[in-house]
Amino acid sequence: MVGKNTILKNIIFVVLLIILLTFVLLPFVTMLSSSFKPDNEQNTFPPQIMPENPTMEHYKGVLNPDIFPFLIYFKNSLLVAFLSAGIGIVISIFGSYSFARLEYTGRAAIQRGVLLVYMFGGVLLVIPLFQLITKLGLFDTRTSLIVTYVVQTLPVSLYMLGNYFRTVPESIEEAAIIDGCSRLEVIYRIVIPLSAPAIVSVFIYAFMIAWNEYLFASVFINSSQLRTLPLGLNQLFYTQHYVWGRMMAASILTAIPVIILFLSIERFITGGLTFGGVKE
Predict the structure, then answer these.
(1) Dist CA 60 CA 67 (whole Å)
(2) Which residue, among 251, 265, 248, has the nearest Cα to 205 in the 3D structure?
(3) Which of 41, 220, 222, 236 could join 144 via S-S bond, C-beta 3.0 to 4.6 A?
(4) Transmembrane segments in this chain: where (predicted)?
(5) How far is 89 from 161, CA to CA, in rounded Å?
(6) Residue 144 CB contacts under 8 Å (≥ 6 apart), including other chains
(7) CA 215 to CA 230: how far, in whole Å?
(8) Closest CA to 73 of 262, 260, 253
(9) b/e per residue, 203-224, with b = 16+ CB within 10 A?
(10) Quick one: average pLDDT of 212-241?
(11) Class for the domain spanning 70-270
(12) What angle do CA 149, 131, 124 make, to 5 degrees?
């Protein structure tokens, strides 16, 4: 028989879980609902979750280049996010492996020093980064954003991958080296395949940071043709075409790539590829 205390704990747990899910999902549900509501239903009271007369006009408006150049902003965000996340992953793999496996003077100091970047907020770094970007001739270019996002996400990426690399049994690497593999071959053939869940997680983290970032993009980008989606959504507020439904539709379209990316590679995260790497 299940005790009364256990039943009570389960009930409390379920209630708290429902409250948490409601708190987390309600903004997204509201955004999705508003994107399909006609203008005359946006401010009704009491508010309705399901629109009475669903419409696709807001999505058509967002995808209309004369109203909102969504595809241009989407391309810019996708290019910047993928390149910055990809470059950051390559640097993080080699940097993290050196922290986890190699012995050299000052390793501990460098490893701790990397995390010092996170002691400073983005607002404090905007001015010195702007001066550096300007002197390098990178102002109003995608390269300025890619470099900034790589630097911004690198400390956490190095920390996360370094900790994961330490869980990979050294005996596998030692056996590969005895068989004649170089360090680069060990990384490519052993460490990367066994660390795929961590690498994918770090890639998603770096991609999301770059995809949603607004502060640095608003300072470093001036041309309308180079704006990313966060800048484009902000600009939509100040146009004659601004309506709540259209803003919500643009926000939904902005969130879709991240959702698709996560769902498509979720199996790598949950696969636990290091399980069974060494047999007893």
Answers:
(1) 10
(2) 265
(3) 220
(4) 12-32, 78-100, 112-133, 145-165, 186-211, 243-265
(5) 9
(6) 133, 138, 220, 221
(7) 9
(8) 253
(9) bbbbbbbbbbbeebbebbbeee
(10) 84
(11) mainly alpha
(12) 65
The runs of H, that is alpha helices, within 37-169 are 57-62, 70-101, 107-114, 122-135, 142-165
- The dihedral of CA 240, 243, 246, 247: what is its sign? positive
pLDDT digits (tens, 9 = 90+) for 25-83: 888 888 888 888 887 777 777 777 788 788 888 888 888 888 788 889 999 999 999 99
pTM of the model: 0.81
Cβ-Cβ contacts under 8 Å for 124 (sequence gap 6 or more): none
**In the numeric block, which tokens belong to residue 158?**
């190095």
Query: What is the C-alpha to C-alpha distance for residues 34 and 215, in angstroms, rounded to an integer?
Result: 27
Every domain range in the chain assigned CATH 1.10.3720.10: 70-270
User: Measured between alpha carbons, how far is 145 from 138 in angstroms, rounded to an integer?
Assistant: 9
CA 21 to chain centre: 21
Tokens 């910055």 — which residue?
84
Per DSSP, the three-state class of 222 is: coil
Mean pLDDT of the chain: 82
What the block records as the tokens of 102 is: 């190699």
User: Which amino acid is located at 94 in the chain?
Assistant: F
Place of tokens 């002197």: 135
